[in-house]
Amino acid sequence: MSDAKHDPARKTASLKMVAEFVGLSSAAVSRVLSGSPAAKSIPKATQERILAAAAELKYRPNLLARSLRRGRSHTVGVLVPELSEGYTTLVLAGLEQGLLQAGYFYNIISHHHRVELIEQAQTMMIERAVDGFVAIDTVLHQHQQLPTVTISCPDSHEWVTSIVLNHKRAAELAIDYLVGLGHRQIALIKGQSFSSDTEPRWKAIEAAAARAHVRLNPALVAQLEGDSPSHEPGYFAAQRLLASKAPFTAIFTFNDVSAIGAIRALHEAGLRVPRDVSIVGFDDVQSAAFQNPPLTTVRQPLRTMGLLAAEAIVRQIESPAEKQSSRQVMVDPELVVRESTGPPTAAKRVAKA
Amino acid sequence: MSDAKHDPARKTASLKMVAEFVGLSSAAVSRVLSGSPAAKSIPKATQERILAAAAELKYRPNLLARSLRRGRSHTVGVLVPELSEGYTTLVLAGLEQGLLQAGYFYNIISHHHRVELIEQAQTMMIERAVDGFVAIDTVLHQHQQLPTVTISCPDSHEWVTSIVLNHKRAAELAIDYLVGLGHRQIALIKGQSFSSDTEPRWKAIEAAAARAHVRLNPALVAQLEGDSPSHEPGYFAAQRLLASKAPFTAIFTFNDVSAIGAIRALHEAGLRVPRDVSIVGFDDVQSAAFQNPPLTTVRQPLRTMGLLAAEAIVRQIESPAEKQSSRQVMVDPELVVRESTGPPTAAKRVAKA
DNA sequence: GAAATTTAGGCAACCGATTGCCTGAACCTT
DNA sequence: AAGGTTCAGGCAATCGGTTGCCTAAATTTC
């Protein structure tokens, strides 16, 4: 029947305060409250007394102190290019869900693809004693000896698990679909050079085109430029395609965001989608289905990839070097056909007014 | 001249190791490396010896230990409804920039507007010893005695600074603009009831409408439903508006994402934007300018709001109860006219086919 | 009834840094 | 030459938990 009002303005009760309150050592209290196996030698009654006291004093363990002692912070550092619409957001949502479920926190730092910021971010996270890293579309140079999981990153080092998309299949889905519709003059918008998916995807597209017996016209390849995560790079890339005067009936873009930018450029040039030009995007971000026209796109299971990364990093952290199996987890894309694609209309190709 | 290879597999050097290395006490080393004022009694030569040793051993301070001792973690907890396209992302980008610049880390937890998750998140963050909270579009129930800054949240408690939009002005911008174009039958899509901007915005709209002598027809008010952060709620809300059969020539939506959903619903009903119906969105998210048609919208300076929040929380943390001025920071909206609006066309109002 | 075990919980070191206080030595002052 | 300062840096407590080892009483085993 202890008095309920103790220091109302108190920050939080510490373990020691609980210990004094029940008249036991902090060791005993710690063992009970942190569910240590050593607590089994403490009788139920005492345990309940401790629990009650903790509740009464509103005890909250100081996780900094615990982490310091245990050498495990239950925190992972997440490296992303930026917080922007589209790709990152969805992956992060999955990652967050998975991590919180497993009792982990995370720190995000976005580095805008700048090498020095990436290194600085890694350093800061190490100082903060993260238990591991998750890198999303990020080129890791300086490698720490910490568990690491990458999503869509190139050249996995050792002790890293990488979650990657089946690029081969993704390219085939899009190319075969466009070819099946009758397209032969397919323009391509490549990713920025710093984006780690750019190269593998490009190789896969070349292979898929060869397999489908379509020639890729170098004049019909535009690359996204600039590090803006917005729609502008796609917009400008499409303008360059139009300026090249080479005829095309479809564009396969690096991602949905640039597809949307490209559509805008086409519209401004007086071309209609899909009547004059078909567009296939990539990712299937949330807004893809609500574009006008709704975007046909190659879906990456972004949320799932985030979840898989969470599982992988937790597994890696918690089983020290156990069977380091599954170095690479490959996920499959899916073609989502909406209304931005259709058969090519005759030979028409309106030059830019 | 010392040997450069020390324990290559070592995690990181600790202060003590540096101290042993240079043959000094860890106290002295700490003072020098953490830039303590007490370091001034240590001669330059010694300081340099210490610095060199730290560099050689690649010493990185353990910030957990430092935080524990100093009672300041240089971390703020960020509460958001979810990581989704649109609103949150932009605010977070600004917030991140501001926080990192000031040397702070942040932990994000998204709570999907679920009360128990909000409380749980606050508790977890307190356990992790955050120095303060930033809440974005979040209703804080359980208030901690920690510095807090809210963005677009209702009912500021004490010791919280709130960053809010000038709703009055925002409503007037949109309503006056639509009325100026000749619109009289303006439909409205209200925010979800759990969204903290919904009420103030709605009041402001009512006031602006009254001021402009337009009657708001209750049949022309639809509310977003469901907690999906995607475009669907707007899509369905627009469908309900159409189903009501009440004629309207414009819609003013709660945010851009729902505006995009609404446009889709209108298109499916055979209506053109802006020929048949004008749409004004809200927020000016990244993709707004690239919609088809590009969205006329009331811009919130989201990135700036994030930056302001960062500054405010840092100030609050670092100046304990100093002049707690500026309880509320109001930012101004701006009307961005693009192509989703135009004058109403005669009396035409096509019923849903 | 003695030895072995279990029960109940305390002691104190430790995680890695920070910091108030202290001590000798050197240097200055008058 | 005695006393006062400054210099250079060490001691040890502390932040809040955790945990290996230990002890003393109670209980069980033989």
Description of the structure:
2 copies of one chain form a homodimer. By secondary structure, chain A is an alpha/beta fold. Chain A has 11 helices and 12 strands. In chain A, 39% of the residues lie in helices and 16% in strands. In chain A, the strands form 2 sheets. Chain A has a 6-stranded parallel beta sheet, with helices on both faces. Chain A has a 6-stranded mixed beta sheet with strand order 7-6-8-9-10-12, with helices on both faces. Residues 1-9 and 347-353 of chain A have low confidence and may be disordered. At the A-B interface, helix 4, helix 5, strand 2, helix 6 and helix 10 of A face helix 4, helix 5, strand 2, helix 6 and helix 10 of B. The first copy, chain A, binds a DNA duplex (30 and 30 nucleotides) through helix 2 and helix 4.
Q: What is this entry, summarized?
A:
The structure is a homodimer of 353-residue chains. The first copy, chain A, has 353 residues and is α/β, with parallel strands linked by helices. In chain A, 39% of the residues lie in helices and 16% in strands.
Q: Report strand % of chain A.
A: 15-25%
Mean pLDDT of chain A: 90
Find the biggest chain interface.
A-B, 54 and 54 residues
Radius of gyration of chain A (Å): 27 Å
- Strands across the major sheet of chain A, in which order? 2-1-3-4-5-11
Tell how many strands the DSSP assignment of chain A holds: 12
List low-confidence stretches of chain A: 1-9, 347-353
Q: How much helical structure, as a percent, in the residues of chain A? A: 25-40%
Helix and strand pattern of chain A:
HHHHEHEHEEEHEHEHEHEEHEE
Question: What class, by secondary structure content of chain A?
Answer: alpha/beta
Summarize the biggest pleated sheet of chain A: 6 strands, parallel
* Tally of individual helices of chain A: 11
Distance between the termini of chain A: 86 Å
The coarse overall form of chain A would be: elongated
The oligomeric state is homodimer
